[in-house]
Amino acid sequence: MRIIKATLEHLDLLCPLFVKYREFYGEHPFPESSRSFLEKRLRRDESVIYLALPDDDDSKLLGFCQLYPSYSSLSLKRVWILNDIYVAEDARRQLVADHLMRSAKKMAKESQAVRMRVSTSSNNEVAQKVYESIGFREDKEFKNYVLPINGD
Asked: Which ranges carry the N-acetyltransferase domain (predicted)?
């Protein structure tokens, strides 16, 4: 398995799996909007996307993860938010997520980030175990809140 950083040339490969990721979380697929969203992130250098590919096939995507940069005012350093991670159904149980997250962790270290953050649903025990296996710890210091902007 190879992990590579996505570029605009990878959009055609990435978009179908990104759409499946959105559907997995109950969102409408919106393939054109999804492609436009990813294209903007890559073109504007607003996120880092890692792709997992088989060693011998550049046309098959096993999984991806997308990270967004943020900053910590308290530590005066960069923080990376592991916002999206998804593994194709036929590639599960092959440690794809582990490889993706290890690449993300390496990039975070190289950028001198103070930490990476990730969120998952409280009932997604599989994801929680994967995150914990590479060193993520549940945040006991801060409680997170969400403020929906649209609809109110």
From this structure: 1-152
Q: What CATH number is associated with residue 18?
A: 3.40.630.30
Contacts of 29 (CB under 8 A, 6+ apart): 19, 22, 23
Structure tokens at 124: 């997604």
Q: What is the pLDDT of residue 147?
A: 82
The answer to whether residue 146 is domain-embedded is no
| pLDDT above 80 (res 10) | yes
pTM of the model: 0.91
| Residue 32 belongs to a domain | yes
- How is residue 26 written in tokens? 């109950």
**Residues of the domain holding 100:** 2-133
In three-state secondary structure terms, 118 is: strand
Q: How would you label 87-122 residue by residue, b for 16+ Cβ within 10 Å and e otherwise? A: bbeebeebebbebbbebbbebbeeeebeebbbeeee
Overall domain count for the chain: 1
- Kindly state whether residue 82 falls inside one of the protein's structural domains: yes
- Indicate the helix (H) or strand (E) that contains 138: none
